[in-house]
Amino acid sequence: MYIQYCTSKQNGKTYTYPLLCRKYRESGKIKTEVVANLTKFPKETLLAIESALKKNKDILVSLKDIIIKKSIDYGFVYVLLTIMDRLRITEALEKVLGDRAKFVKLMVLGKIITRGSKLCIFNWINRNEEIAQKLGININDLKLETLYSVLADLSHVQDKVERKWNLYHKSEKDEVYLYDITSSYFEGAENELAAYGYNRDGKKGKKQIVIGLITNKEGFPLGIEVFEGNTNDHKTVIEQLKKIKAGYEVDDVIFVGDRGMRIRYNLEQMGDEERQGIGYITALSIEEIRCLINEGTLQLNLFSKDLAEIENEGGRYVLCTNPDLEKEQSRTRAALKAKFEETMHKIKLSFDTRLQNNLKNKERLAQGSKNKKLTTQFSEKQLDSYKYRVRAAAEKYHMQAFYQATISQDKLIVTFDFEKYAQAKYLDGKYVIVTNVQKEKMPKETIREQYKNLKHVEHAFRDMKTTRLDIRPIFHVNEDTTRGHVFVTMFAYAIIRELENQIYPWLKETKQINKRQLSLKDIEEELKMIKLNVLQINKRHEEIKITELSVHQKEIFKTLGIKTESLTM
To answer: With contact defined as beta carbons under 8 Å apart, do 109 and 84 qualify?
Structure first.
């Protein structure tokens, strides 16, 4: 049976009336029988009857008996879990940690969603039982201590997990590895790895750890290591080189690091067998460049070309110029010079005023003044004070190489070394890359490009340390949980990076076509609007329903290569 809506016209008006009908066969023909006229039935009753006829297995209930018991953000969580599986993070963790991998997945997911501590993640998952079930976690049995315990376990098997991770993401063409380090500060001073060192976070008086990150040439994270907070950049290099060759099972390595890594020096400390197959690309410090210029190995006029190259003693020097950086450094240098000279003017004015007073006091005493307390010369303390002020100003404005001050009882003279200043100014925006990679393997243009790719590692550190993932401040005390915390953050960054790489081209295209400017944050918020709704029906039955996707949300899923049909529990 079914309801058929018929229409009739009377006095220029159209009337609709519902009929309850059934189909039957008679003498080989299909006929229709009107069972009842339902015109007088209320609309709600008609809908209930129609629903019962179409879906006779469903329960008929009143709308007032349907309660939305819970509604949670699900779309963004689902996308993150899908990318986690796609990157084979789940697979790498499960093969090493087994069933405890689900807790690491929770912390990776929670780090992106909450950007908070383990307690924050613990409280979040307790509010979202359905997500916990998708991860295979029973929140009734989950304890905060479990997360810390798993973090410690993760740190103990990090090498094994990284081997699996690199096996999944290794390409036969990959031999270039980028490496850089950063620091991250602590709240508290009890951490076993924490120490005072060169703080890159601008947090004076805070202990820190040092973090080294290895990526491929595109910036995809492959390994991360935690060092004590007072570890110098270059002292981390040998360990990382061994890690790549042995841990990642790579025979030929081209190691790219910044000038502070002192890669050439580190290779000299390694045995012949250990450094076999290791190439490097790094940059020289300003002091090293000046030394080579003074020796005659490098000539200043070569920097006038776009890209010049010099071979010397088995190494290649690629001389580079960045016009934008040159302008910026030139402006900065001129501004610092002006501020230093302004400060020196004030210091000299103070000195000259006191000197004039001393000379006048000498005249008074010569003319018979009986005031024996008149000051006629600078004390040693006063002279030391002026020397300190000049030295402090020179260091503050980075002018100590170009100005020399002579301070005595009767003069304060500051001399300016124009030649040194001109040479330093000429080197603005200029840098020298040094490598032992053969020309046949990499031309100078590729060498420069590989060195500039270190920006990918810097980008990773920005994402890890700022509001995107908030690795800092670190509250852990135990060494193992600290290492586990950093390792979890690396996986979280890998997911964010993959999301960015897939969504940014689409955002750019959307901006050009629709004139609508969106950010990754907008995409995140759009996905969070896809809710997982827990419906309670007649106080007895529960049903889970996912919000119907909008056109925009479907476009996002298509861009990410995720089928909308898969969006289920």
So the answer is: yes
Q: Are 223 and 243 in contact (CB under 8 A)?
A: yes
Q: What share of the chain is helix, strand, coil (3-state, %, to 5)?
A: 50, 20, 30
Pairing of strands 13-26, 29-37: antiparallel
Helices (H) and strands (E) in the chain, counts: 19, 16
Nearest of 86, 71, 139, 67 to residue 110 by alpha carbon: 139
Average pLDDT for 240-248: 87
Strands 176-185 and 253-257, by their bridges, are parallel
pTM for the full predicted model: 0.78
Question: Does 308 score more than 60 pLDDT?
Answer: yes
Query: The tokens 């995809």 sit on which residue?
Result: 220
Type of residue numbered 56? N
Measure the CA angle with vertex 199, ends 112 and 220; round to 5°: 40
Can you name the residues that pair with 69 across neighbouring β-strands?
A: none
Q: At what angle do helices 551-559 and 479-514 cross, to 10 degrees?
A: 120
Mean pLDDT of 277-297: 89
Q: What's the maximum distance between 2 C-alpha atoms anywhere in the chain?
A: 149
Question: Amino acid letter at 244?
Answer: I
